[in-house]
Amino acid sequence: MNKQLLINKLPKEIQGLVDISYNLWWSWNIEAKRLFEKINPYLWLETSENPIKFLKLISSDELKALVENKEFLKDYKYVYAMFNEYMNKKIKFLENEPLPIAYFCAEFGLHHSLPIYSGGLGFLAGDILKESSDMNIPMVGVGFMYPGGYVRQVIGSDGWQNGTEQKVIKDEAPIERVLDENGNHLIIQVPYIDPAVYVSVWRVNVGRVPLYLLDTEIDKNDPWDRQINYRLYTSDMNQRLRQQIVLGVGGYAVLEKLGIKYNILHLNEGHPAFALFERIRAFMENENLSFDEAVKKVKETSVFTTHTPLAAATDVYNFDAVLNYFKDYITKLGIDKNKFLSFGVNPDNPNAGFNMTVFAFKACKYKNAVSKKHFGVVKEMWKNIIDGNDKLDFVTNGVHVSFWIDSDLEENINKLLGSSWKALEEDVDIWEKFDEVDDKELWNIHYQRKIKLVNFIKERVRDKWKNEGIDPSVALAEGILLDPDILTIGFARRMTEYKRPYLILKDLNRLDKLVNNQERPIQIIFAGKAHPADMPGKKIIQQIFSVAKDPRFAGRIAFVEDYNEEVAKYLVRGCDVWLNTPKLPLEASGTSGMKASINGVLHCSTKDGWWPEGFNGKNGWAFGGDVSDDEKDANELYNLLENEIVPKFYNNDDIGYSKEWVAMMKESIKTITPKFGARRMMYDYLNKFYLNIKEKNE
Ligand SMILES: *Cc1c(COP(=O)(O)O)cnc(C)c1O
Predict the structure, then answer these.
(1) Atom 7 in ligand 1: which residue has the minimum CA distance?
(2) How far is it, in rounded angstroms, from Cα 647 to Cα 658?
(3) 112 lies in a domain?
């Protein structure tokens, strides 16, 4: 067992480092991060800030020296005490303490050392667990271990995305085996599913919140079943169905087996919706309810969050395929198959099959969209299945501030507001004081981050050049000529048609003038993966890559390979402008713009997702019409860049930075952090849903 090996390796005096590295708490705590960094800054960077790998690789001599180092020991004791205090604090969260919540999601984005996420949905889920931990909301997460991860993106010299495997390195990831009574890895059977499938269980410590991950890669399964959870979002519909049965039914059963009591089930997106059936079955069995009574009880105590603004993007399974796996299950529920299947029938398209979103909508009373704008879309889209007694609302997404904010900036905020600001993060008034931050100091922090970003990109390319013998034009397209002194625009997100990554490339002549302006040049950094089956997405990457390679753009347009959480952190802190160009109304919320905005990276976006709620005229830019039109929107974007963004950025007289720009950075930080931090989001979930369910439950 890996954790034990590390404990054995470390001198007794500092063994607490192992506990810290196996709890993601460290990843949103400056003191803990600095502690690892101090031990060996080079190794810390080389191991991509993964403390488990770091402790594995550090030499015994260095460890011995640490125990002799009084100053280090003092820091260590301080951090370890902080950690223990955090973990043991059992403060009551509110007078109206909410009931325990089980939070199910097909992906969790917590840290790059655990690559079981594809993007936004996963990071939202991860940030919800982190924030619930900080707020002491009693929550438990349930998700999937994907041994084959998502895809590692490798771009060929022709600009084509070739995915390779991104394996989860289990002994370098912050996961621990959950053991059974005999000390073996806990394995359970997914109840009443035929043919039988088994899952083993891992635990991830997200501060005080446990996350359980199900894994089918075990000997007890038939070889073809071992692969069920191999890849995230497989395009094989049968495999996808099996994944979702295992996640929902199996996930629920794992909590039962572990004796974890909770009263509220929260489904993040439709993928884990089969948990609702298992909840019905469990209520029938444990509380002697009839099927209809159990359905009612489940409905009153379950929350569903939808993120999909496109009816076509939901998972719909062939009725026969669903029946095939649930035969025994349906018998157990004591209903006929028509009644069972009717839960997934979309009245707008009844023959299509079993629709997971429709099922979740019908079986959960509490449901939400993820921004105000998306709320309008959802109301219209599902008007035929929303019952008048249901509670449909919106909870705009938010981001976990301490995780996404730059450490230097956080220290600055601590100085100004006192470190207790974290307890009052959502309080708009306390952020007024942020105006007092020294302009030059704020700019310097930002400038250092730009340098870090450019160096990070160059080091990655250098490694590739050295180890893989790539073509020099690829090194160029991947950012070797980037310059921290010029206006830097970032565009990083899933590469897919509706996000319109190509919008800023629409008029290459106009772009040429912006990029190659002698006095006021700009550079653009792109990053993002396309889903392996998304051909148009892959073509967009190829198009960007060919522009990046074109000598005409002087190495100032770059495509950074393999976007992940590590790359995202550098980008959302180190660019000047964060560009977002989705076609309305397809971006349900979006969160990367929030991560950028809380770091003072100015958001420039079409009026979709969260931005209509966030934009106040001074904290970034909004452009584009209410009906998206590529030509018109691109034209507006170029106008904005030429007439406003570029002049403002370079209006720096003799002081080396632009006062107007810094004023906007301050406005961005102070207005976006309280409103789009995860704290505000969790208060919304509490007030709109969780606390209401408590009353109903009693
Ligand atoms: C935040 C984040 C996303 C989601 O960003 P959107 O703006 O919602 O597209 C995707 N991937 C990574 C790595 C992220 O950190």
Answers:
(1) 592
(2) 10
(3) yes
Its pTM surpasses 0.85: yes
pLDDT at 230 over 90: no
How far is 195 from 225, CA to CA, in rounded Å?
10
Closest ligand 1 atom to Cα of 567? 13
pLDDT band at residue 297 under the 50/70/90 scheme: very high
- Ligand 1, pocket-test mutation among 307, 578, 591, most atoms within 8 A of CB: 591
3-state secondary structure 605-656: EECCCCHHHHCCCCCEEEECCCCCCHHHHHHHHHHHHHHHHHHHHHCCCCCC
Same domain assignment for residues 326 and 262? yes
Residues 440 and 460 in one domain: yes
Q: What's the distance, CA 619 to chain centroid?
A: 24
Mean pLDDT of the chain: 94
Q: How far is the CA of 123 from the centre of ligand 1 (A)?
A: 7
Q: Show the domain range for 9.
A: 3-88
Q: Which residue has the least CA distance to atom 9 on ligand 1? A: 493
Q: Which has the closest alpha carbon to 425: 672, 618, 95? A: 672
Same domain? For 622 and 538 the reply is yes
Q: Give the chain's domain count.
A: 3
Q: Which two tokens stand for residue 437?
A: 């931050």
> What are all long-range contacts of 278-287, with beta carbons under 8 Å and residues at least 24 apart?
278/191, 278/248, 278/249, 278/252, 278/253, 279/252, 280/333, 281/191, 281/192, 281/329, 281/332, 281/333, 282/252, 282/256, 284/333, 284/334
Closest ligand 1 atom to residue 593 Cα is: 7
- Cα separation of 384 and 401, whole Å? 38
224 or 567: which leads in pLDDT: 567
Q: Are 192 and 220 in contact (CB under 8 A)?
A: no
Report which of 581, 153, 573 is spatially closest to residue 403, judged by C-alpha positions: 573
What is the whole-number distance in angstroms between the Cα of residue 592 and the centre of ligand 1?
5
d(CA 259, CA 597): 41
Measured in angstroms, how far is the CA atom of residue 208 from the centroid of ligand 1? 24
Which tokens is 346 given? 């979309």
The residue type of 681 is M
Within a 10 A sphere around the Cβ of 592, how many other Cβ atoms? 24
Pairing of strands 316-317, 302-305: unpaired
| Domain identity same for 201 and 107 | yes
pLDDT above 90 (res 624): yes
Domain of residue 584, CATH code: 3.40.50.2000
**Ligand 1 first shell, C-beta below 6 A:** 119-120, 123, 493, 563-565, 568, 590-593, 595
Indicate whether 271 and 152 sit together in one domain.
yes
| DSSP sequence for 123-134 | HHHHHHHHHHHH
Given this model, what pLDDT does residue 698 score?
47
Count helices and strands (H / E) in the chain.
31, 20
Element spanning 595, H or E: helix 592-598
Ligand 1 atom with the smallest distance to the CA of 399 is 1
116 and 60 within one domain: no
